[in-house]
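Per-record layout

source: Citrobacter youngae ATCC 29220
name: Rap1a immunity protein domain-containing protein
length: 125
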Amino acid sequence: MNTIAKLILTFSLYIPLVSHAENTEEFNGDYLLNGYELYEKDHNAIYQLPASAAFSGYVRGIVTVLSAEKDICISDPFDINQAFDVVGSLLKTNPQERNNLPAVIVAEALVEKYPCSPNGPSQRN
């Protein structure tokens, strides 16, 4: 099973726990964007508001899985806020991406930004 399939399975089980959405259909690209926009207004919102907390937890979880699977290579030290901004930027600039599954949206944004090279971590601008 490839990493994206694992992410979709794992995080579809995780969604109801973190999102406070009525059902899993409500946890979508628009919900992620809403969480990012709340975070963008106030970075402390990730600890206070359900949508931003869900966004934060979701991105953190996928960063952890993709890093462990060596699907992304991030430098040390790594600021998680960078990953939040990468995902948020994709959601804002590519509205059509919001139709994809949240795990796919986050994974695609991170794999594009933090590809692994044969020589170790690399980062695209």
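summary: The chain has a mean pLDDT of 82. The chain has five helices and two strands.
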